[in-house]
Design brief:
By secondary structure, the chain is mainly alpha-helical. It is elongated and about 95 Å long. The chain has 4 helices and no strands.
């Protein structure tokens, strides 16, 4: 067993849990990161199984499997983040339109009040 990678996996999981507890990270978003931490922990404890899994998948080296899984994991996270950014941009656009309409409505009401006060003074 490689104790360094076991410690890294455990510390990573603890860091995610602390971030959730401090409301810095949502439980839903942390699921993929927890999965990544658990994979690191699993592969650290059962590192011999990595070569077996790689050979069953037709991959010569276990490290190549790790790089493949890491790249796949990061692509998935990037895709999820891109989707979320798109949704947030749409929400921002809708909110800015609503704010513009409300500001226009306020200006119109102010103009009406000003006209009424001008009529009263004449």
């Amino acid at each position: 067993m490689n104790y360094f990678f076991i410690a890294v996996g455990v510390l990573f999981i603890i860091y995610i849990l602390i971030s959730i507890k401090k409301n810095e990270f949502s439980i839903q978003e942390s699921a993929f990161w927890m999965l990544g931490g658990l994979v690191v922990l699993f592969l650290s404890i059962f590192h011999k199984s990595l070569d077996k899994i790689a050979s069953k998948l037709g991959i010569v080296y276990g490290t190549s499997l790790i790089f493949f899984l890491a790249i796949l994991f990061l692509l998935l996270l990037n895709f999820r983040s891109s989707k979320r950014i798109l949704k947030l941009n749409e929400r921002i656009s809708k909110l800015s339109h609503k704010i513009s309409l409300l500001e226009l409505e306020i200006k119109e009401k102010d103009n009406e009040k000003e006209k009424r006060s001008n009529k009263k003074t004449k």
